[in-house]
Each structure stands twice: as C-alpha cells, then as structure tokens.
Predict the structure.
Amino acid sequence: MCAQQEDYIQTYLAAIEDELQQAVKQAHDNGNTQLHDMLAYHMGWQGKPVNIDARGKRIRPLLVLMTCSAAGGDWKQALPAAAAVELVHNFSLIHDDIEDRSPLRRGRPTVWKKWGIPQAINAGDAMLTLAHLQLIRLTGKKSPSIVLNAVEILQQACLHLTQGQYMDLAYEKRNNVTIDDYWYMVEGKTAALISVSTELGALSANCDDQTRIIYRSFGRLLGLAFQVQDDLLGIWGDADITGKSNQSDLITRKKTLPVLYGLSNSGEFTECWNQAPVCPDQAEKLIDLLEKAGGKSYTLAKAMELINNALNMLKEAHPMGSAGQDLKNFVLNLIHRQG
Amino acid sequence: MCAQQEDYIQTYLAAIEDELQQAVKQAHDNGNTQLHDMLAYHMGWQGKPVNIDARGKRIRPLLVLMTCSAAGGDWKQALPAAAAVELVHNFSLIHDDIEDRSPLRRGRPTVWKKWGIPQAINAGDAMLTLAHLQLIRLTGKKSPSIVLNAVEILQQACLHLTQGQYMDLAYEKRNNVTIDDYWYMVEGKTAALISVSTELGALSANCDDQTRIIYRSFGRLLGLAFQVQDDLLGIWGDADITGKSNQSDLITRKKTLPVLYGLSNSGEFTECWNQAPVCPDQAEKLIDLLEKAGGKSYTLAKAMELINNALNMLKEAHPMGSAGQDLKNFVLNLIHRQG
C-alpha cells in the first residue's frame, strides 16, 4: 500500500471510530454505563489490551465509505451507514462467540467469557439495536424515503445473516454437507453484510437504482471471495499473521470449502476426516491429503475466479477517478491479505 | 366483558394473527423452512399443543389497534405496527428464556429446550429482525417520514428493553436492590414496549405530536401497573388461572415489588428470605410474613394508583366514542385479570 492510500484510510478509520463511539454511547442509561462498557470492551475501546488489534479491521465500514467516494458521493454522508454495518457485524460476533463457545476474540476473552452467557446475549441485542439506530442518523443528510430504503436494505441483510447462521449451526451436526450447501450458507453468513456495505455506500452517494444494484452485486462477489480466502488462510495461512494455528479450523471440524472439496473428491481424506476427533498429527496428515487431492489449488482458483468476477462487476459500476482506483486497490489488498 | 366487546376483540385478534404469520413467513429461505418453523413454534402455530394458550394473550398488538381506533384512526392501518411490537415481545421472550434457563413457556418446552441454545439465540435475532421488517410495511399506508418516525420509536424502545434486561440480570446477583432500582428496571423491561404500543397506535392514527406523547405516557403508566399486577399474581394469584404455582416467584428468588417492600420494611421477612434457597414450606411462611408486614396491601395500592394515573392520562388524550370506551374497558379488564 502506498503512502497516499494509507493516508486516506487513516482518515476514514478515525472518522469511523468516532461515529462508532457516538453510536455506542447511546447505551448509556441515566448515568449507568455498565451495558455500554460491555459493548465498548467488545469494540476494543476498553479492557486490556486496548489496541488496534482488539478492534478488528473495520473492513465493512471502510467499504461503505470507499464505495460512496467511488460512486461520486461525499464519504462523510455515509458515516452512519458505515457505523451501522460494523455494529451489525459486531453484534453477530458477540452472538457467534456464544454459539460457538469461543473463549477468545481478537486475542482477548469474549464477552460471554467475561460477563456470562445471559448478559452477553443481551449485549448482542443492544449492539444490533444501536446499529439500526445509527443508520437512522442518515436523516438530515438524506430524504426520508432514501433513509427508509437504507433501513429496509440493512434489515433484509440481517434476516439473511440469521438464515446463514441457521445453516452454519445446522451443518455442524450434519455429515452430508455439500459444496452447494456451503455457498448457500456463505451467501447469508458473509456475503450479505459485505454486499450491504457496498450497496449502502452507493445509496449514500445518491446513485440511481441500477448502479446501486451493481455495487451490491460487486459486494456480494467480494464477500464470497473473502470467505473462500478466509478458508484458505485457516489451513494454509501464516499462523503468526492470522493469529491462529493453521490446524484449528480442522481440529474444530469446520466444514470449509477445501474440506468439502476433500470430502467429495478424496476417499483417503474422507477416511481420515471421519476418524473424529482430529488431533494435531492427524491435522497435518489431513492438510497433506488435501493438497494431494487438489483441494488447495481448487480453493485458490475459486477465490481468484470470484475476485475477478467482483472486479469485473466493479468496472460495470464505473467507479470514479482516484477513489475508484482506491477501491480497486483495496479489493486487491483484501484478497492478497495474509491474515 | 360484554358480547360486543368480545366481537371486536375477536376481529382484531384474527387480523393480528394473520399479520404475524405474514411477517414470520419472511423467514422462509429458498424453500428451506427450518428457521421459520422454530419461530412458528414459539408463536404457537406449530408443535403440540397448538391452541390459543400457546400463543399468549397478544395484549400489546391489541393495545396498538385499540389505541389507533380510540385516536380516530383506521385500525387496519396499524396492523404492521401491531405485529411489530408483538414480534419484539416474542424475541425478548425467546432470549429471556435462555437467559433465565426457563424450560417451559406457555405450557410447552421453550425454543432453547427444543433446539439448543445456539439455534435459539439465532432464532431470537431473526424474530427481532422480522419485527422491524414488518413495521416498514407501514410504507404505502403512511408517508416515509411517519414510517421513519415509527422505526425510530420502536428501535428506541428496543434499546430501553435491553437496558432494563441488563438491570434485571444484574439484580439477580445483587443483595442491595431497592424499590427505586425496581422502578428503573421495570421502565425498560415492561413499560417501554407497552408505551410503544400505545404510541405507535396513535401514530398510525395520524395524531399530532402532543396527543401521541400523551398516549405514550398512558402506555407507560399502564405498563408499570401491568408489571405490579404481575408481581401480585405471582404470589397471590390463583395458580389454576395463572398457570404457575404462587410459590415459584419466591422459590426462584425474583426481586418483585412485594419482596423488595418486605426486605426494606420487615426484619422477620428479611431474615427468612436470607435463608436461601427457598423451599415450599418457607415460601408459605414468606407469604404470611409479607402479608403481616403490609406488603400485599402496599403492592395492591401501588397497582391501583398506577392504573388510576393511566386512566387519567387516557382521559387527557380525549379518546373517541365507543372505541375510547373499549380501550378504557380493556385497561380495567387487564388490571382485574386473574392470570
């Protein structure tokens, strides 16, 4: 990333953080800050360590602002939408961590680990509500009918998210998950919120409906690519950069794309996989078998195909000037990320 | 209740049920009905037994429609708002049941008991999302700015609900809960959603802002009265009608208004209460001590005071004709309910 790119990203990130903090402050209740503090902890502003890593990458709100700019809008107008999608993402993380019983998130204890499951469920509910409240702050910047359109788009994405999450949880208990099932789940679980990011960015730029829908499709393809890349990094990533062992996806028996490929294309892999639970030695063997069966190259090719489709879709939206180039570069960086 | 009242209530209830079913159908996902079926079960439309009891009383949506009529509006216009508040209420029940580890709701296993905690958390999230999606259906009946106003009012109530729920969960672990703390919690936990019911009813009738706010205050007072009445029934209600033992609130150590009164006014009660856990014999003794200390009459007087305040507030809103009388009667029936 060149210095100029870094500059505008830093500007965006600072504005996003400010907007997010304003949103979360609404959880203050007559001087009572406890609920707020749970949310502030999850967002990486409180608790130890407080640092950039504890906040996550803010990829979705960056996409909202960058799409707004690329579509010829003023990125500041898109800040409520940017905060809203990031808060929905974080709501889903708080609840996912309970559902998956994950003890750690971004290197720190998860909300349910610190405050117990009942308070963590409720904190997630509050975070979701704050997301939608923040989106309504578009009022004043946009006409009521545009704001209402944004509200509906985000709620539909939330519904899609819960449908994807239903599948993800159901697949854990199923032995016959197919690659088709995988795409169906990922559409909701990952692509819905990334496509809403680019769509709301375009909406904030006052795009016509057709262009807005093209930006949405671009986001959807990007979201699918993002998930496939995540699956790749979960097995072949650099553990020092991803922050987790490249055996953990296998040990927790995640039905990722390479695993599903292995299950439908390699008897040897399937046999080894079915000897649950997976121990570290077995994980190494599974990785070898996957590579031999072509699971790594298949997944890599799929990621590349999706990212190319996403970039072609972006071209169709005719993104403007340097902001358009920035968005393209951001996408390329995302897909070449190592963690 | 006279025959005429029953008639219009049946008409309202049928229309509410239809609107709710339309809303929940949106959880259907490309022919996949599993997530939908969890929600339909909770709503009392699927699973055994399917009967009116499994659905709950639909008090909040009835209040929306009745307030709309009393404020001179067409109740059919308020149906999306009526369904929305009932869905928010049911979202909170699904999550509350997990948080409280309640195995039964309306005489049937709770959602988490049937499908496990992870799927139940996600089902609650879906229910909340469907609530807000349904409210947006006011579009077409109302101008975008009125719909947006309704959306914000409901989201603010949801935030208030999570603030109240935070307190309710926190109080379980605290020994020094005061009557002031109680009111603070009940404002969010119960009053927020009942005040939003009357407010959205008024909004759907195109009331001016001042009248709408009076209807909201009426709902708030009614909500507070409703909770106090609930606390009374939890100890002195007829178990055959309430459907639960009048010892269960004491055995689960709920910090209800009569209990908090006992703790601050009766040394004998406090001593007995502190001998946790409460067994059935002790529960009978606690009830006796509460009555002796005046806890029952205090709570009853408080309920009456609140209901009178609510009725006075309703008078200020100048409800119209027979619909206004119906609303008043509905309130009186609510407070004289036995279960």
In short: Residues 144-172 of chain A form the longest helix (29 residues). Residues 209 and 292 of chain A are 47 Å apart (CA to CA). Chain A has a mean pLDDT of 92. The two ends of chain A are 16 Å apart (CA to CA).
